[in-house]
Write a structure and sequence with these properties.
101 residues; mainly beta; 1 helix; 36% strand
């Protein structure tokens, strides 16, 4: 259904992978790949720290769906998406590129 990763960059995104990697025979099988922004205190940059939250319910799992978002250290919620059958067709609000002061 999905693979989640966090690191020390300001990137916050999810994408359904179906394409072939250029120059290879490796093709995505439709799995969702999600990246969570600056999750710790190491690394570089001054992006607001946050962690990706994954919301699972029995009802949504029956449809192979889940919800996910980033909860920022500032308590705000950004990057909320539903990974469901219409993901990559739906429209979601842009996540701001906030920095710490």
């Amino acid at each position: 259904m999905a693979v989640f990763s966090g690191h020390d960059h300001g990137n916050t995104w999810c994408r359904r992978w179906r394409e072939t990697v250029p120059g290879t025979y490796i093709r995505g099988n439709g799995i969702n790949l999600c990246f969570g922004q600056h999750t710790g205190y190491g690394g570089y940059g001054t992006w607001v720290r946050g962690g990706r939250q994954i919301i699972l319910t029995e009802e949504k799992l029956q449809d192979r769906a889940l919800d996910t978002y980033i909860r920022l250290e500032t308590k705000f919620k950004v990057g909320a998406v539903s990974l469901n059958s219409t993901y990559n067709q739906d429209t979601y609000p842009v996540t701001s590129n906030d920095k710490t002061s």
